[in-house]
Amino acid sequence: MTGSEIIEQLKLVVGHKGVLSSKSKTAYYRSGFRSGFGGSVGVVFPKSLIELWETLKVCVDANCAIIMQATKTGLTEGSSPSGFDYDREVIIINITRIKKIILLDGGKQVIAFPGSTLHELEGELSSIKRAPHSVIGSTTIGATIVGGIANNAGGALCKRGSSYTELSLYARVNEEGNLELINHLGIENLGETPEEIFENLEKGSFSKENIQGMDKAASDREYQNRIRNIDAEIPNRYNADPNRLYEVSGSAGKVVAFAVRVDTYPMPKEKKVFYLGTNNPSDFSKLRKDILKNFSELPEMCEYMNREIFDTAKKYGKDVFLSIKHIGTKRLPKLYAIKSNMEYYLNKIPLVPKFLPDQILYYLSRLFPEHLPKRLIDYRNQYEHYLILDMSDEGIDEARKYLEKEWSSLDGVGFFECNEDEQKSALMHRFAAAGAAIRYQTIHQRKTEEVLALDIALLGNDTEWMEKIPDEIKEDLDLSLYYGHFMCHVFHHDYILKKGTNIKAVKENLLKRLDQKSAKYPAEHNVGHMYKADESLQKHYLELDPTNTFNPGIGFTDKKSTRTNAN
Fold this sequence. Notes:
alpha+beta; Uridine Diphospho-n-acetylenolpyruvylglucosamine Reductase, domain 3; 3 domains; 34% helix
């Protein structure tokens, strides 16, 4: 079947408006969030579970390479084609139009359809005083629940770990090359055929007596024990942890999730943010050990920033900060999508500066007055390292007593309890840090190369968490930005390289140093098309997708089809 014939078949399933096939209209969907680009005969937008199933049947019958895509918030090119060297036609299936969240047991668990976002889940749960299974950095720009689970995405929450579930409804192509639906959602009597299952699920046609599967995990329930193990010679969490690979969880698009079932959590009655400063990184190591070993309540979050990322986020993440504060997170996903589309088309116009919307937003933000509270800036001037310690309920008093007695006994440290404005500002500033390096490089394109962004999981017992860059690497760096999730020892290192630097060589040197420390990388952004999948991850992919139908080439694996019954 030719590419044009496949497109016509798909239009019969989803309608003419549900398929894009021209190079100009598909370009946005064929590119990654930060990098990556490839070929595809078309992009399909099914609007229901049955349309998704019928779309898959057309693609499998035509022996297409299938790439599942949501909102493209991943940073390692894992939800877009990579190059133009596939051995068959590539179809991108975008699932963002298939949205539904079903509350179970008063909202203690939910069933989420593939296009449902974490932000929508937060909104759905807020009225019943519940919180999602995970909160990740890209929540506010539209990250989907299924996307997080497929990548075992991490996040900032100390109590909940990576996105994970053992309860799902998904499709795969088996060893014989046939499409099959696997119902492990734990809901009985949904139907015998895919069509019956989809209809009953979409209508919510099941009773609470049908809800089973309580023996299966709908979140990473062991995480609190793992994060407290301060003597662990393995990381607390990372994407490719073989113990967290299960069907849809960690699948990286090697199966097609139709629905997932995940836990939710009671919302804290009270929260308090403590802001800490020091000039000695080992002080934070002691604090981490004391909290994980002795506190009865874990922090909600504990985020680290160094002075360079503080300054960079303050200047180059100001527009993001102001957008969250004044526009709110509800509108951000749509605004980011509009900006990305504008960038694509503007970048094609000769003489127009690259990433013009980013530059406009940066210069507009400079017209606004200082946005950070005085005490945060005072601490920036006084200390080189900062922790944002977010405690809840009984943990608030526990942290307060520890900081007043144990922390304050150390030389050259400080802390204060944030008021409401300081609390919100500290957390928004940390969020803005995630994109600050990209914005800096965009503004300073003439003197810098691209950003080398590494997300790293250090060992649970590693006390040397602060990277010490050797001089031969340091001389190639314009900026070294460090921030991350301190309690679980997952850090983000953003290196902005000077113009003319050999990026590949610097990356190899840095990764070699991490290998010597037995660190794992990427820690929470998954391998995508930028990192090699280790043996356990490759095995997981092969078990899920023995014919290499879905997302071929992920993790530097082979792109070729292994189907023997292809038409």
